[in-house]
Write a structure and sequence with these properties.
The chain has 338 residues and is of the alpha/beta class. The protein is 44% helix and 18% strand. It contains eleven helices and twelve strands. A six-stranded parallel β-sheet has the order 2-1-3-4-5-11, sandwiched between helices. It has a six-stranded mixed β-sheet with strand order 7-6-8-9-10-12, with helices on both faces. 44% of the residues are buried.
């Protein structure tokens, strides 16, 4: 009986042990692949498929082509989708407005880089936009525009005005200048004009006339013909808001002895300007860094999309192209389009 009782108790203990465990440790719970990295927050996982839109004034000129190339290069280097578009010309206002409306309303983009043809109009258009906006080349005065990437056009124009005055003094020319500018009322045009005036006048010169060519080289040439009629004894300098217009204005002075040594100053420092400076069809150019503008604006916008704070103004710098450095500048610009 004692032996039978002991055997019965042993069997009962074995049965209880089998009911409590299968003899293997519990497997850890499988992670939820859809869960956020930090279970204590509701923030989504980081996004790496950003899509940005760059809307330029146009892509039909060398200068704007460099900005577009810089923007596309930034997209490739940063590994993001960047779409670059532009209007047919710098006076295609309605076309650009339509582009901006269409792209914003599509909801496809995480942010926009915009070079406005009409800054006031674009400021109104982006008032309710819910993604970051950065302006390039031309500033947009709006709390929705987080940063302006480009040249400080007034200080750059001032450098050009001073360089023109120095060139006039060296050549023994009269300290008078005519300004042939792009589109009247355009922010970039007017700030460049203000800079030209300050630089030339502070150096002892006088601005005797200001005319607008609507960013059309043919109109710039026609204005220059009128200047030759109005100032038959010549002027010391012609300060122009774009290289194409400066070259066109210079062309019509050929054969006029009174304007043979006139200093022609353009703005942008593009390839055609470097070539014109090297062969005497332009004297100086205020060079911007359009490729750098395009690249930097996309880089800045991506940082804003990711939540970083941007400086209100990111200056990409300016310099003077002269006969001494035009060849070096030309080689650099050609490297951007290879």
């Amino acid at each position: 009986m004692k032996k039978a009782l002991a055997l019965f108790l042993a069997l009962m203990m074995m049965g209880l042990g089998a009911g409590c465990s299968n003899g293997e440790p519990d497997a850890p719970a499988e992670p939820d692949p859809g869960a956020a990295a930090d279970p204590g927050t509701n923030e989504p996982a980081p996004k790496d498929d950003y899509k940005l839109c760059v809307i330029l004034k146009t892509l039909a000129t060398e200068y704007w082509g460099y900005i577009g190339a810089g923007a596309e290069a930034a997209g490739q280097e940063l590994g993001i989708d960047v779409e670059v578009i532009g209007a047919a010309s710098e006076t295609s206002y309605d076309e650009q407005i339509s582009m901006i409306e269409t792209k914003i309303s599509s909801g496809e983009y995480d942010g926009f880089v915009i070079a406005p043809l009409q800054a006031d109009m674009v400021s109104t258009m982006i008032a309710d936009v819910d993604v970051p906006v950065v302006s390039v080349d031309t500033k947009i005065d709006s709390p929705k525009c987080l940063s302006f990437v480009g040249t400080g056009n007034e200080p750059a124009g001032e450098v050009g005005g001073k360089a023109a005055a120095e060139a006039c003094k060296e050549a023994g020319l009269p300290m008078t200048a005519v300004c042939i500018m792009g589109v009247q009322g355009d922010t970039t045009t007017e700030t460049r004009l203000a800079g030209y005036k300050k630089g030339f006048e502070d150096a002892g010169g006088e601005i005797v006339a200001v005319q607008y060519c609507d960013s059309d080289p043919n109109k710039a040439a026609a204005i220059m013909e009128s200047v030759m009629q109005n100032y038959p004894d010549g002027v010391g300098a012609v300060l122009v808001s774009g290289d194409d217009y400066a070259i066109a204005a210079n062309r019509v002075t050929k054969g006029n002895a009174a304007f043979e040594k006139t200093v022609f100053v353009g703005f942008d420092g593009i390839q055609s300007a470097c070539e014109a400076i090297l062969d005497g069809r332009e004297t100086l150019s205020v060079a911007q860094d359009p490729y750098g503008m395009g690249f930097t604006s996309v880089e800045a916008l991506l940082r804003a999309v990711k939540g970083e704070k941007l400086d209100e103004f990111i200056d990409t710098g300016a310099s003077i192209v002269s006969p001494e450095n035009a060849a070096e500048r030309l080689a650099l610009l050609k490297s951007y389009t290879k």
